Structures
1.
Amino acid sequence: MTGYLARRALQAIVVMLIVSVIVFVLLHSLPGGLVRAQLGPKASRFAVFQLERTEGLLKPLPLQYLIWLANLVKGNLGFSYYMNQPVASLLGHYLPRTLLLVGVSTLFTVAVAVPMGMWQGFRRNRIDDHLLSASMLILYAMPGFLLGVIGIILLSLDVPVLPSTATAFGSGLGTDVTVLVLPIATLFLGNISYYSRYMRSAVIDNLLEDYVRTAYAIGNPARRVLLRHVLRNSLSSTVTMLGLTLPYVFSGALIVEELFNFPGIGLLFWNASQTRDYPVLLGVVLVVTAAVVAGSLLADVGYAALDPRVRYVRR
Amino acid sequence: MSAAERPGGGAPAAEGARVPGEGRPAAIAAPGALPGLWPGAAEPAGPGPRLPAKRLLRRGGVVWQNRLALAGLAVIIGLTLFSFAGPLIYRTNQTATNLLLANRPPSAAHLLGTSPEGRDEIGQLMVGGQSTLEVGFAVALLATAFGMAWGAVAGYIGGILDAILMRVVDAMLAIPFLFFVVLLASILTPNLGVIILALTAVSWLSTARLVRGEVLSLRTREFVAASKSFGARHRFVIVRHLAPNVLGVVVVNATLKMADAILAYASVAFLGLSVPPPATSWGDLLTTGIGQVFNGYWWQLWPPAVAIVLIVLAVNVVGDGLHDLVERRLERR
């Protein structure tokens, strides 16, 4: 187990290093350079030169990368020249809300998708399976913001029970929790089809395995075979799936936060893209990716805990 | 075609590997396939005694059976004709702004009403469909070509190069794609080319993984080893054995990629990154429609919504049909 974890952790670090290189290259491929982006096209050449010198932009690129990386490790993600704040403190402010949004909606998604996928796999090609599959496909075919808007139309306009924006969320203690319902529901509906489809085919595959036949043959009742053997075996691959789909969940959060004006990291990112606040843009990409990498590492740990075989087999 | 017919001389013994009591192989998940659309009574497999022709017909039969996939294909062709040939027949002014005509509800003159700029909505849907379908096709094509090359090199050469290439894929997959696209688009000025480029940059990754995996497993198969032991060169092995066997899976993947690209384009348009006006896309129209929800201008919201859902469903259903086709072929080998 320890060896497996160490290997996976090392892999995660390598991935983060490559991401940091990609982000660094993007940062330095800005048209006109970072300083021009900051000072604007009318800045004098002297002002540009001065800022480039104080920011250390005249040093060779590899050296700049190392300095930047060292700063990152120390938690210095740069300074937002638009918001006039360190990027790290902005992230510390906005990230927890996004994690809450993503976490709660993912919990709901899994809690519904797993039993549903099991049911569908068990009732494969019956009418209820087809109906569920068809509705999942239609959910998949809808852009996330369309789902959200339908929610707003139904529950904020037609029957005004829920607020259509979440701007107020996080502005003070004891804020209204109802603002969270629509954003979470939108993310939930947007992601559920991935997991239920996957769970369904995992269950179908497992039902064909020899161990299921054996389990039936030695006299286990269907409920026990399903809940004890098939569920566990299907679940372990769905947990990996969970790690793999985390980037999509965060992408969905970007859309949902923009739609509902939810003050999370996605909205921060979007606003920064409107003002071309590059330190914030890059800081958000780095931190969100780190969250994804940490999440999939966690999923792999869960996978190893569920499925002992993983711990021993070298990848 | 003939190269694809002979998947490396694999044993044809797996012919009967079906699930008992099932008309279709079990591993196939065909979401949305309604019962009754899978006729158990297959068409007679053609009278010809010659094997290739018979097989071809049987395969054609598989497609024919899958009426849902055919319906999907019809929808794709229909929407493509609507978008590209439609403006030739249904002439509207899609460049001028006419505020006197703004936000008109559906009427005889404008069957789906007008946009906030006073343009005919049906005409808008046509223009929007053009960029939407162009992005879908282009991204699927480019991402598949690039991902296939990347994955094939990684899988075939292996070793340290494989490790490096695949870690890059891992890293890029870990960046949530919308964040990456928004970042790229805020560095470059968005236009059709930039959007295609940005979406391709995030779409080729899964193809690379898929192809690498396939190549890795094919590389150790008996027929490849046999071919090599006869002294076949790399190029021969790749062209004759690997490519035909990978192609089926890749085509299915490319189809689904097109659906994903269209959805992603809509999301990106919602975030404000799209083709410069007066060009538009279904995602842009939908975004405009969302802004008008509170005014009650439903004709600006639902038509583009239906268009997007329709095309994504159609492409998916076709992808599932192709998947069935490929699965059956794989089963035979």
2.
Amino acid sequence: MNTHPYLRAFLAGAFVPTLILPLLLLGSILIRVEFQIGPVERGLIFPMALVPSLWALWNMLWLYSHTRTHLTIGSHGAILPLLLMPCGAVLASCLGILAVGANEVVWFRSLHVSYALVAPMFLAALVAYYLAWKYVVGFLNRVLGIA
Amino acid sequence: MNAHEEDRMKQLLKQAMPPAGDAELERDRWPAMLQRLDAQPASPPWFDWALAGGLAVFAVVFPASIPVFLYYL
């Protein structure tokens, strides 16, 4: 199992978002059909096109760098939202699924999130990524023999 | 089984299982194997449980955050 460690890191990193995407797609179809909330399908471009690849590349970067940085897999994963959230917000804004207002941002033309909630949401995202990377990606890395 | 059949059997077994060659381990791997077998899977520390609980509470209190989280996953 000493061959192609970066390929295995790529597969382990892409595993979680790839597993969740069909559920996300199903959920978006149900929302679109049942509640007439739109445009949710545009919201799938970022999670489907970029997030799995970014997770995979981020895991490859951890494999390359962790002997020097001594970062744990959870801490390394918790840094990823710092990169993902601005990129996702810019793309969402360009696609018309995120509108920036004076007191709040509006997601999917229906979810109103006040600016006071943005910082707690960002912290919650860091926590979610920390836990997902520590327990799920870390487990997959151990199974594939790269951790 | 006579001697001829025994030789024939040995020959067939040798053909079926070719020698491993000169490959030798560079070190004894058995102690590491024992260590891995003895290692107990560590349970998550209390602060990870606390973080997971806080995350669940946040999702319940602010359900509007769930689609936004899914957008980033």
